[in-house]
Specification:
Elements (H helix, E strand, L loop, with lengths): L2 H8 L18 H16 L3 E4 L5 E5 L7 E7 L12 H16 L8 E6 L12 H7 L4 H4 L26 E9 L4 H5 L3 E7 L2 E9 L3 E2 L11 H19 L2 E10 L5 E2 L2 E9 L3 H22 L2 E10 L2 E2 L2 H8 L4 E4 L4 H7 L4 E6 L15 H19 L1
Parallel strand pairs: 3-4, 3-5, 5-15, 6-14
Antiparallel strand pairs: 1-2, 2-4, 6-13, 6-15, 7-11, 7-12, 8-10, 9-11
Helix pairs in contact: 1-3, 3-11, 7-8
């Protein structure tokens, strides 16, 4: 099956009729349909599929027990109302690359796997790259089994969990193809590029507690309104990131009791912060927290900040990147990926990017031209052939 045919199969799954965006949250109906599709595609190619206790899938061409395997692939889940390409492009391209390698008569001397890591976006349980973190041991099952989604469903009720199984110990190298989530390749007029590394990044929960009150009868000067503290904190994050040339975003907020005619008693908001070095990230978050604390004191509210997940700077494996890159442009990325988790765990990793002409990601506007995707398949097939031969 060609790349285009596979892409047409996936296009309607989990797509919103109103926004055109995708809702492919882990272990929900759309994502489960995609997982079934992946198993069917693997079976059609004679690839044996393994599922680990956390829901990660890998389809093997060759016997992984022989060791030194090469792994490719990405993820199938999406952010809420996300784009079509973030994740699935890497999975479809990996299958298409195997087809192309077979057309060329490649006989791998090393096993080749196509992986699908689960809950990469953290859109359901709030932990980005959760599947790869659990598989590598970077996250412990006992620490995350009790996580709940917005509906109160526990992660531990959806998957078996437990200690990591040793399948990643059979992997010697990982190459992930992904749609670019910016305009680096547009600016370079290149359809495909390779990543040098990933900026350090993390998520922090800001809990602001105040006092619930009547929106009409309570004088403004008598209020302890956590929404005011949050609003100032969001503005502070924007200002501090702009001044430092970094990234800071409050994209999720919950107000309690969430009534139109009531001053809230509590506001919980999540900060996504990213910077070009570990020190710059720490400075950025500290500056935002300082301004938030000062505002909380003025508002008569209480602020608690919790680091939910923090990932340090990742530099991809130089020899592997050189083998994958050929003459491709090299650029850093500010987005987190499973490849970064595997690299941090000691598995040499590299990333290919396919041009996104809109430069927009995590949005229905995310896009890649079919011609560029096919160049990406070619680049991936060439790199994998070099690695498995």
């Amino acid at each position: 099956m060609t790349f285009e045919a596979m892409w047409r199969d996936l296009a309607p799954i989990g797509r919103s009729a109103s926004s055109g965006g995708y809702f492919r949250q882990p272990w929900a109906s759309a994502e489960l349909e995609l997982r079934a599709w992946f198993r069917e595609q693997a079976a059609a190619r004679g690839l044996a599929v393994h599922e680990d206790p956390f829901g990660n899938l890998v389809a093997w061409w060759g016997d992984p027990a022989s060791g030194g395997a090469v792994l490719t692939g990405s993820h199938l889940d999406s952010v809420l109302d996300g784009g079509a390409y973030d994740g699935p492009l890497g999975v479809v391209s990996a299958l298409a690359a195997i087809d192309l390698m077979r057309e060329r008569g490649v006989e791998p001397a090393r096993p080749l796997g196509v992986g699908v890591f689960v809950e990469e976006e953290g859109s359901r349980f709030g932990r980005a790259c959760l599947g790869s973190r659990l598989a590598t041991g970077a996250a412990a099952w006992e620490d995350v089994a009790g996580l709940t989604d917005r509906d109160g469903v526990r992660l531990g009720d959806l998957v078996t969990g437990g200690p990591p199984t040793p399948w990643l110990q059979q992997v010697g190298q990982f190459v992930e193809l992904h749609v670019e989530q910016g305009r680096g390749l547009v600016d370079r007029s290149a359809p495909v590029g390779v990543a040098s590394g990933i900026w350090p990044h993390g998520r922090w929960r800001f809990d602001v507690t105040g006092r619930a009150d009547h929106a009409g009868t309570t004088r403004m000067e008598d209020r302890a309104d956590p929404m005011l503290t949050y609003a100032m904190t969001a503005l502070a994050a924007n200002k501090q990131a702009r001044l430092a040339g970094q990234r800071a975003t409050f994209g999720r907020i919950e107000a309690h009791p969430n009534g139109t005619n009531a001053v809230p008693s509590r506001v919980t908001a999540w900060l996504d912060a990213r910077a070009d070095s570990d020190a710059a990230l720490a400075d950025l978050v500290a500056a935002v927290e300082k301004q938030a604390a000062e505002r909380a004191e003025r508002d008569g509210t209480r602020l608690d900040v919790t680091a939910e997940s923090v990932t340090g700077e990742v530099s991809f494996d130089p020899p592997l990147t050189a083998a994958v890159a050929a003459d491709l442009p090299v650029l850093p990325t500010q987005a987190g990926h499973d490849a970064g988790v595997l690299q941090a765990a000691g598995i040499p990793s590299a990333m290919l990017f396919v041009r996104n002409p809109t430069g927009v990601s995590h949005s229905p506007e995310e896009f890649a031209e079919t011609a560029d995707c096919e160049v990406g398949v070619e680049a991936l097939a060439t790199a994998l052939t070099r690695l498995v031969s």
